[in-house]
Fold:
Amino acid sequence: MRVGAVDQAAANSGITPGMRLADARALVPHLKAVGMNPAADARALARLADWAMRYTPWSATDGEDGIALDITGCAHLFGGEDKMLHDLSKRLGSYRLTTRLALADTPAAAWAWARYGEGGILSSGNIDAINALPVAALRISASDAHDLARLGLRRIKDIANMPRAPLAARFNEGLLNRLDQIRGCASEPLTLRRPPAPYRSRVAFAEPIGHRKDIEGTLKHLLADLCARLETAGLGARKLAFTAYSVDATTQHIVIGTAAPSREAAHFIRLFQEHLDTIDPGFGLESFTLDATTAERLMPTQMLLTGKRNATASLTQLVDRLQTRLGAGAVVELKPVDSHTPERAVLMAPAFERPNKINGAEDWLAQQPRPIRLLPSPELIDVIAPIPDDPPLMFRWRKVSHRVARSEGPERIAPEWWRRDQTQRARDYYWLEDTDGRRFWVYRDGPFSPESAPRWYLHGLFA
Amino acid sequence: MQADLRSKIRRLERGGRAAELSPVPSGCPALDAVLPRQGLARGGLHVVQGRPGDGAVYGFTLALTGRLRANDGIVVWIQCGRDCQENGIPYGPGLRALGIDSRHLLLVKARRAVDLLWSMEEALRCPDLAVIVGEGVAPNITAARRLQLAAETGSTTAVLVTPPGTAPNTTALTHWRIAAAPAETTALPPRHPAWTVELVRCRGGKPGQWRMEWRHETFHLDLAAPLVDRPVVATV
Structure:
């Protein structure tokens, strides 16, 4: 068993990562050792990166033990870069995390300054400080660093002014790329935790809040702000995400979606109210953000003089409310599909979705009469029928016997041979009316053969 | 003069809420004769009762919905998710014969009965819809009253399909009991569905029972032709 990571006191006693645990115990008998859990560490780091989004929307995890934040344009909200860094370090310290913070012009420079430099703010354009760092700060492989050391190049300043061609020949492109990145000549995009939303409202409280009434009031305030900005831009939101940041560095989200773009705060607040109870205040919620993650063009609707609005607007809002409460996909339209197989002839498409042109047909394909009700899965029935092709004389469905008075058929529906997953056989459909007057749609699965009696199923009900 | 007085009374009963909707003829003169104001009333609650799994109930409800829609507006059909295998789901290609175009239909699947009633109420308040049909739930008096109020507020019509054994509701405008009726003749099977339609209770009208057929050529209900004394012909 080896030591994976050490704290400051252990490092002072001479224990280094990679040492055998037995050796470490020999050095420090009263050593406290805890099993490593890399998966849990990764999850905790991800949660911390999410929490750090209270400072900036551009947050990413960096390796196994770091977080990278792009605070371009956000520093003034916290009173300047100094104050922001101070606030960040104070909060992380209050969570009992030992951290090294650095702020620089480029991600590479910040990485190097945090791990190999003094930490803190690296003023813009301060090349000398970077050049004084060891070459390992360039994030190159150990073998490259070893080769550079053999050549006597130990600091960045040693290679900074060398001609590029020999360097590229001796080491691969990576070294030059890293040099460019640290100087800001090459770009280094971060893989963000969550891409920033085009429209976002944010509010932070000096004292954390917890009452549902207060949370609702905050949401209304954020909605009013966001809807006003959407209106000036001529956009409507289709998806909104409400995020609550708690004092113990956790975040909670509610996401709602609408069928058509909208910017009516009243409509959105009603959709959010369905789910507001899922927010658990815990120790207190200190800041909230509202993002419009999907926004689309929406023309202004004029109120008619009578005060009535556009007719379809209230219908789409009703559909939004139903889907928010009953679940996405609860409201469907029936669309015809180009298929003879009865269960595939209908597509239950979510209401008001963009039409799918691939399989869609203009009108129902079936020419023969079809039942008004279809059972989602056909039910097996026991049938007495003259062989081979005649309609049944009597059948038993759900433990009730029915004697057939009249029938019509068969209508043969062949399987779709072009579908590769075809296990279906040709079906012969019959319209049956029993002595009570009830009408059914039954089929025989496959042609009759003396060896194996085919099965009969009930598929639908006629009026 | 009498009609004036009647409409005044009706307005008072509504409490001056929404504008009144004119009744729709059912297409069957015998039925219209017993209904108040000679037609199916809109802006309220109708209850249709029948055995679940019996196609006749759904057929009659579709026919009724088609007439109540009066060629204008969207129909919302709400079902409980649990009953889908038991009773089947509305099948697009077959609805056309009963007078409902699937382009004017929205299907809603609710999880529980309370969600179903909530959805019905929300939909009834939306003025852009014509008819809202709820299936598989038997409401108590309070729920029926709420549905009636919501229908009046939104100027829409509600139809409830309830399982048998429900006592006739005092709040509903009409209460029907439907069963399938065997065909009269044993000749070639006619495609016209035949039902035994019983109007159990009607607010302002007379109850009655008829045997009706639905004519899909003209989308209206018709009294089945009277029986003729004839020797029975054997099935083909």
User: Anything to note?
Assistant: Confidence is low (pLDDT under 50) at residues 303-309 of chain A.
